[in-house]
Amino acid sequence: MDTDLDRIAALAAARRDEFEVLCYTIDLLEDELPDAALDALIDQIAAPIIAAIDCTRCANCCRSLDVYLTPEDAARLGEALALPPAEVEARHIDRAAAARMGEWGRLRAHPCPFLDGTLCSLYPHRPETCRTYPALTPDFRWTLDDTLDGAGRCPIIYHVLDALVIAIEALERSHPPESPV
Ligand code: SF4
Ligand code: SF4
């Protein structure tokens, strides 16, 4: 499975229109593929892709994404860094930028300051968003814009969308639109 980040970025850019049509089609298929069924399909498609991709050799999300934090995340960071909460906030957390996005806090720096090569230096204490990324389910249908934006950055997302194109085409063939009478 291709995990070369330059190639994934180029492929995702070249297929952007195709993936946008996919998202539009998924919106239209709400009756044939309700949210729970769509999430189940995504989990089925994603499982072998996630198993085949070694995130410890990639870390592109850690280099490129905003990491939003909760107070609980900040407390865990303090534990890992052996710093009091005020010091963690002063050094690492941008509350103002996060507030503009309706969030509690955000790590200040890109790449993430806790990234060591391609590994997380405080993995057991990492924030919740790091644990769930790329967060394909639940609610795949309602987070499609974020997923689409991640296709050029995350090989898992790219390959899930690639496989989903084929799965949705098969579904459309099995549910052809009714002909006008
Ligand atoms: S805290 Fe760890 S997992 Fe989260 S972005 Fe930083 S390096 Fe990556
Ligand atoms: S979640 Fe995606 S971008 Fe992050 S390390 Fe894994 S493959 Fe790379």
Please describe what this structure looks like.
With 181 residues, this protein is mainly alpha-helical. It folds into two domains: 97 residues, no CATH class; 67 residues, no CATH class. The strands form two sheets. The protein has a two-stranded antiparallel sheet with strand order 1-2. Strand 3 and strand 4 form a beta hairpin. Helix 2 packs across helix 10, helix 3 crosses helix 10 and helix 5 packs across helix 6. The longest helix is centred in the C-terminal third of the chain and has 20 residues. The site of one iron/sulfur cluster (SF4) has 9 residues, from loops.
Bound molecules: iron/sulfur cluster
Helix run count: 10
Secondary-structure element string:
HHHHEHHHEEEHHH
Oligomer: single chain
Main sheet: strand order = 1-2
Principal-axes geometry comes out as elongated
The SS-based structural class is mainly alpha
- What radius of gyration results from the CA coordinates? 19 Å
Gap between N and C termini = 46 Å
Q: Low-confidence parts lasting 5 or more residues at pLDDT below 50? A: none
Binned strand content? under 5%
How many individual β-strands?
A: 4
What does the largest sheet look like? 2 strands, antiparallel
Tally of discrete structural domains: 2
Mean pLDDT: 94
Q: Helix fraction?
A: 55-70%
